[in-house]
Amino acid sequence: MSAPTTFPGAIAAPGLGRVGDSPLRPDGTLKVKGEFAYSSDLFIDGMLYGATLRSPHPRARIVSVDISKALAVPGIEAVLTHDDVPGRKCYGLDGTWDQPVLAFDEVRHEGEPIALVAADHPETARRAMEKIEVVYEVLEPLCDARRAALDPTYPKVQDRGGIARHQPVRVGDVASARARAEVIVSSDFSVGIQDQAFLGPESGLAIPGEDGGVDLYVATQWMHNDLEQIGPCLGLPKEKIRMTLAGVGGAFGGREDLSMQIHAAMLAMHTGKPVKIVYNRYESFFGHVHRHPAQMHYEYGATRDGKLVFADVEIILDGGAYTSATLNVVGNAASLGVGPYVIPNIEIDAYGVYTNNPPCGAMRGFGAVQACFAYESMMDKLAQACGMSPVEIRQVNAVSQGSLLATGQVIEAPAPLAEMLARAEAMPMPSPLDSSDIRNLPGGASQTTHGEGVVRGVGYGVGLKNICFSENYDDYSTARVRLEVIGGEATALVHTAAAEVGQGLVTLEAQIARTELGVTKVTIHPADTTVGNSGSSSASRQSYMTGGAVKVACEAVREAVFVLAGLHLGRAVADLSLDGGKIVSATDGVLTTLEDVLGDRVIEQTREFHHRPTTGMDPVTGQGASHTQLALCVHRAVVDVDVDLGLVKVVEMSAVQDVGKILNRLSLEGQIHGGSAQGLGLAVMEEIVVTNGLVKNPSFTDYLIPTILDMPTMKLDILENPDPLAPYGLRGAGEPPTLSSTPAIVAAVRDATGLALTRVPIRPEHITDPAADPERASS
């Protein structure tokens, strides 16, 4: 059967642009004009439409499921339950295998899939789905993450227990240091559930193969990891499942877990027809994981001049019903739990727990975001207690070359944090508030104020984020590069399985090929599973890992070209180099061209790129060199706050970030802006509101995300301190600004209001109502 008609095919990367340049993205114009083919646009003749029946309860036993009335609806081709799962009934990231394909005994969160329907029209599928009769024995949901972590008598959501992972970190002697500390501050912090809020809902197309297998066109972040889970559930060997990346409308971690992949494949295999599934926005809120909400307690001790002497930290992350990425999120939260500061005595206890709240997993920042809000808030509180400025307290305690993280890992070649803070502080401040234009005011054109009660505040935030996968994971990426003459011009074809999720990877792959091979014409092959694993488009790792794989594959191709040229010209390979498509001798200059050397030959090389090994975290002390690379970002935020109404306008965010090497400034600036926008959202507006396990705002009407009107101007100071172990010296850049932007904004609101503000997102009532702010109410 042919491929879907809207599949975009290979992407030609037009124009010049090598590493360090800023060529435009080949998909950019199509997306701006609304012509890009996303996974929800897929179409093929004769396809059916799938729909999923989901539980309305966060916790209930399934007594019975009656599908007879649904099967009787005209146009219905299949109705499937857990009895129809061909193979293993559960899937899960990293070998956890704890999430049912379709619930078979108990539902453990609102929106858990129960049954599938396939019909000749999407409305028919939805009508039939409503006729499935499920009898539940409704149970009281288990929603208290703190009790799940700390109370051994609390009932367990999962058979494997209430705690997915407890990761301690132990350094020095906290009890002794507490007795010596001259200043002690403490606070409790909480972070709400943030959604990735990608604009392209979960969707894809499954086409049954003549060999009994299936072709899947899906929007995902990691096809090979999907394949590891899909195969056993379908009862198929990997070679019978062919996956191709369809157009992805954003990801931010929310597509690391499976959504509709197995469901669409089951329906396609059952009916023998292609099946397309597209979630609506409401269903999407239940169809993917979210950022873990957190409850945290921090206690810091210091000398009177602000030097930290101990940190005592408890972090509780609510993973919801199933494991997903919780194990690794806990590892990040624990290892980065006190940030980029030197503290000689540390106790951290980080927990990831199971509840009947919405499932949580990967989201941009991945455990470090929650901890960063707490430790940066603590640095501000400590500064106030010591009579120091927020910048000074951070500079006094900042890590530098050779410093140790809480895990004992040595800091290698970071940007000098003290200098970064000074640069952020020295950036020009925005102009004073002009209240003559109401658009400048909190509330904007709503005319809630004309300047009365509006106070300006300034705050700082620092984020330390690990790059690439950690904790002894053999992280690698594969690239295949082909060089041949087409139409008289040497042309490179780059083929990886790396997911382009909007970050600009296809542009960078072409830049690397042009740089290493000296060609102008580069084509990026559609990402699929006919080439080796490229890992996930997450952890700010694809420029490092897949960029590294493309680089070494191109180097292998270039070496093969030199061998050919050497044989043809009678020259030693070591004497040859490439310059703009010309074969150049170190002694005689230009000898010939790529086209002449290649002739009718095709040179193709496949290579893997691995980063340096990491270690696990000791299960008792947390010690270990668990991270590949670390990146820093510093934000300064300026806000105007209407203290009477609790409205906040972010006036400016300035960022100083070390990226190692700028590969594409345009894309890089977009990553810093985008990460800052998501941090702004978490600071002042984004939260999935959950009551007793039930989501109250599953829509973009009630779940608010920043728009272009909410984003302030940004000043960027981008530093290049190369990492000698990374391709081109680069340092992953997509996640660090998400960490530091949130605490910087909250600190600025504190500066304007004098409030403690220990919870994000900040709501208006946290500013206007003393009872809504625990520390203010008790003072």
TrEMBL record:
Pfam families attached to this UniProt entry: Ald_Xan_dh_C, MoCoBD_1, MoCoBD_2
Matching InterPro entries: Ald_Oxase/Xan_DH_a/b (IPR000674), Ald_Oxase/Xan_DH_a/b_sf (IPR036856), Ald_Oxase/xanthine_DH-like (IPR016208), AldOxase/xan_DH_MoCoBD1 (IPR008274), AldOxase/xan_DH_MoCoBD2 (IPR046867), AldOxase/xan_DH_Mopterin-bd_sf (IPR037165)
Single GO MF descriptor: iron ion binding
Chain ranges of the Aldehyde oxidase/xanthine dehydrogenase a/b hammerhead domain: 33-140
SUPFAM superfamilies: CO dehydrogenase molybdoprotein N-domain-like, Molybdenum cofactor-binding domain
Name used for this protein in its record: Carbon-monoxide dehydrogenase large subunit
Organism in which the protein naturally occurs: Rhodococcoides trifolii
Source species taxonomy: Bacteria, Bacillati, Actinomycetota, Actinomycetes, Mycobacteriales
